[in-house]
Amino acid sequence: MTHPAFDAAELRTLLDGRWASVRERVRASLRDNDLANADDLDTESHRARTFEQLRLLAKSGVPELGFPVAQGGGGDQGGSVVSLELLCGNLSLMVKAGVQWGLFGGAVVALGTERHHERYLRDIMSAELPGCFAMTETGHGSDVQRLRTTATYDPATREFVVHTPHEAARKEYIGNAARDGRMAAVFAQLIVGGQSHGVHALLVPIRDEAGNACAGVRIEDCGRKAGLNGVDNGRLHFDQVRVPRENLLNRYGDVAEDGTYSSPIDSEGKRFFTMLGTLIRGRISVAGTAGAATKLALEIALRYADARRQFDKPGADEEVVVLDYLAHQRKLLPPLAKSFALHFAQEELVQALDEVQRSGDERTQRELESHAAGLKAVTTWHATHTIQACREACGGAGYISENQLAGLKADTDVFTTFEGDNTVLLQLVAKGLLTNYKDQFDDLGTLGLAKFVADQFVGAVIERSAAHSIVQRIIDASNKDDILDRGWQLKAFEDREEHVLDGLGRRLRKAGKDNAFEVFNSAQDHVLRAARVHIDRIVLEAFVAAVDRCQDPRNAELLDKLCDLYALSTIEEDKAWFLEHERISPRRAKAITRAVNTLCGEIRPHAVDLVEAFGIPRQWLTAPIATGAEEARQEAQIAHDKSNPLP
Amino acid sequence: MTHPAFDAAELRTLLDGRWASVRERVRASLRDNDLANADDLDTESHRARTFEQLRLLAKSGVPELGFPVAQGGGGDQGGSVVSLELLCGNLSLMVKAGVQWGLFGGAVVALGTERHHERYLRDIMSAELPGCFAMTETGHGSDVQRLRTTATYDPATREFVVHTPHEAARKEYIGNAARDGRMAAVFAQLIVGGQSHGVHALLVPIRDEAGNACAGVRIEDCGRKAGLNGVDNGRLHFDQVRVPRENLLNRYGDVAEDGTYSSPIDSEGKRFFTMLGTLIRGRISVAGTAGAATKLALEIALRYADARRQFDKPGADEEVVVLDYLAHQRKLLPPLAKSFALHFAQEELVQALDEVQRSGDERTQRELESHAAGLKAVTTWHATHTIQACREACGGAGYISENQLAGLKADTDVFTTFEGDNTVLLQLVAKGLLTNYKDQFDDLGTLGLAKFVADQFVGAVIERSAAHSIVQRIIDASNKDDILDRGWQLKAFEDREEHVLDGLGRRLRKAGKDNAFEVFNSAQDHVLRAARVHIDRIVLEAFVAAVDRCQDPRNAELLDKLCDLYALSTIEEDKAWFLEHERISPRRAKAITRAVNTLCGEIRPHAVDLVEAFGIPRQWLTAPIATGAEEARQEAQIAHDKSNPLP
């Protein structure tokens, strides 16, 4: 439609990255199938429609991507993450799909063995067997090691008895549970011969073919939620429910017929975190989807801002386009730059997922988990803040459902606390940094951090991202002390991380047996900051590497500016730290604010073309304010004014 | 229920303030009437129920408070604002009531004359005549001077012809329009004898008794919104609709039978802003309600945080109460302190409204408008941020509708952009500060600011709040350079305001005829900052004055700490400015962060009692997580664990 002052096709290629063909396939599939958001329906119809759409999606062949080749899947976990995020215009469907194929299917793949794969995966891929991922309990969400559901082995019948001992142990917020699920991967304390072996997962049928709850299973409906009302979240209670021994997902822990427990991993803590680690894909998908939903929101708000006018322009016979206001640019353009940065960081993360799958290296796996946790936290908060800013930037129009922002806001809101609460996730990131990923999960929960660090921490070591060599080259080549110099920016991010981490290490080393909680807790804001600045750096380095990959000089120039805007607006947000630690002078601090303003002005003419380059499927862009209604009204007004000037 | 370590009754008295009896009356009325939130209904039923509730409320006698005594009202605008905010648990009803009595009724009272009062007010008070406030148009929301609806006088029939010339001129987002309204106060360009006299309001019937649209009136439904779905927002189109001459609300501009226009105010701009100024109550009510909704959200999140536990406490046989985590305190306690600060600032604002009504002094009126605009912006943003933090602090439970936060978030979201877009409002505040309220509205829109300031601005003058003498006394008595010294805090806020304003004045003085927009626009972030820091000071001074009024020494001590927390967390948020301008040293900056952490710990044990002191009607507290469900589950778990220890 527009004629960007850059090579839009090349930028799209760069953004589409390694899974470009998957993206194109999903875009095509969305053109062929009616997967439109059904938020306007009542709860039951919305759920029914979402379930129908899930089956439509199953037929498209796309969901199979992430499943093993042996059962007819594509064996491409990266592709499966990328395909899911393209559902950003119908987030109920995305979450329903994520539950069915990512969480439920993913658990069977990762925690089960061939007997489960052969028996269930085809029906899971086709959605003939709708399933649940029953981990969270009402009483324990973040601290999943303390789940209270039990699975007790009965050698007499060779069955497990799954039981909910009290209300706090009921399974809570379980997607697919209230209406459609027929089976659940239930996480429970495994008890064999009177001994507990920690949390394991096993498959428990919850509904028969007719849709009735199985004997001993009680299902409650979580009812209306802030958003995602096409997903049937429910609660599961088990009253001594018996399942065959074979239903244990036994890759990391098995029970022989006679009741002998065995596991390839001796430590209970390590075993549990290894199991959790295999489920990392869900968290990466949430980050991807949050990022995609943010892009869609930005596209709506930027298109409207580029058309909407308000207040006469002094000395001109027209009103000012609202995106020409600095305040409006400030609301939308630094988030646009951050969306680019996070996009490239997400691409690196998905590649790392793909590589870890092949290599199986433990340290790389821990690093992947850390990056996934951190990016999930940063990207979902970015979504919450940015979609809110987009809503406000569209005024009353942003509040009307037909303009989509209301739904995007409500649906993505839970992302900051599901698949890991962001605050808890950032603590995991900090823990990894402090211990250099050395067996830190060995029988230690999040709060074991303080004690552990006291023993182990020796000093901050900056762990380099995948972009290592490029970043090092730029830093080495840089000798300018200029805020627009990439080397200076990279060094500023790196130096901040090192300093924050080092200070944190020193604080936590004071922790002993008796004061561990107090020392840890009084440093909690410092812990969270360490994780955030680490992720900031990882994200900047991913952006820098992407600029380096860019072929077209015009694109490189524009991406360069966006990268400056990301780097400098990130520093500006945390300016207090840089000043407090005398990393920048007051004079430079003011120069950074001026530079952010200037960069906003330079990017402004390209804003709409840039956001379009993300290639959000056109099917999702339905908001009247973003698809011509505002322009048509202004034209009518101008035509009317010409023939009927106000007296 | 709990036993606060302070005099809760006295604190309630202090918080209830001058309109304590009105508050008690409304609380009683809420006990007697079923005004429960009906968010779970479908749109039509929700609207119907909200309309029924409006009629119930009419019978309670409370809405009459704000109307003139001559027509049976209470003549108490302050009481009417205070009573409206207590509807914070049913925001659809609050907005419906605000439209009916505040906006529609308020327009008839303030812009009409006795003939309108006598004819309509009784039916408005009783809700027999449901009405709309039809100002905003699709094309012009913030810039209401440029509305395009016309009202042309036809001397032949002594009627006005109301007309929507094109789609951008249709009335948009009009509450009460889609379903219930029978009449609208329509704002239109008044054209008499071929000459335009600017925007005036007139009463236009839109539906007959049977509910059918009147001839020439076309009504559209805005459909679903992010929230407030009990309010029937709609769009109004007028096709040459004729109303009698007497329907002009003629207090500030009248048309004689022969078509002679007259007004007590010569300048068209001043006339318009004077009319708008009389409608200030709506804006003040939005701030009050946003504040009250925030308190309710904080009460839910704090009660849950005070009960909920997660992660084992090292060395103890229990899990940690989540409000004991520093990160959780940081999320909820500075907002609690700010809610106290804004509460007292709002109380001062309502008193000022009451006084201006009596005195009619123009400078005081302008100051009131400025404070109302600024507090509305700051309080509604505080609501958006805090309710979001509360939602996240409650994890998945915060996302389930029955726990109320979803609804509070969705319903209050529009507050930041309705009754004046916050960004535009802050510019009005800055304008007032720069011109010392000297006729600044005389034929100048918001963007006239730059030009005007270039002519008029001479230097920043700190305009003192109502708390003047107390603040001066504290500043004079202070000689300590200590961050916990109130005098130091007050001086820090005042100094920041003066410096920001002074710098802004100097920047804007560079504006000439040709570059006015560019100069203004490039300083827009500075303009917004000037307004914010001004309001920060007004709010701190109101809090300081309230601490001074406090009688009980224990209460004074606790409020003192809360006031410290408000002051220091506000400085902490803007630490970069204080460092950049060398107002604080890096060492002091770190001390402020430590002090905020310490204050959080000191306030934490009283957090629930403090939030309860606001006296949010108990009817509104229905969230299971805040009313005992979590405690009951934990007790059941503990009881179970005792008799069945995990093997």
Automatic annotation (TrEMBL), chains A, B:
The keyword Metal-binding does not apply. GO terms for molecular function: acyl-CoA oxidase activity; FAD binding; fatty acid binding. Residues 490-626 form the Acyl-CoA oxidase C-terminal domain. Signal peptide: none annotated. Residues 22-128 form the Acyl-CoA dehydrogenase/oxidase N-terminal domain. One of its GO terms (biological process) is lipid homeostasis. It is an enzyme of class 1 (oxidoreductase). Its main location: other. SUPFAM superfamilies: Acyl-CoA dehydrogenase C-terminal domain-like (SSF47203), Acyl-CoA dehydrogenase NM domain-like (SSF56645). Residues 277-434 form the Acyl-CoA oxidase C-alpha1 domain. It comes from the Bacteria. Pfam families: ACOX (PF01756), ACOX_C_alpha1 (PF22924), Acyl-CoA_dh_M (PF02770), Acyl-CoA_dh_N (PF02771). Belongs to the acyl-CoA oxidase family. PANTHER family: ACYL-COENZYME A OXIDASE (PTHR10909:SF382), ELECTRON TRANSPORT OXIDOREDUCTASE (PTHR10909). This is acyl-CoA oxidase. It comes from Saccharopolyspora rhizosphaerae.
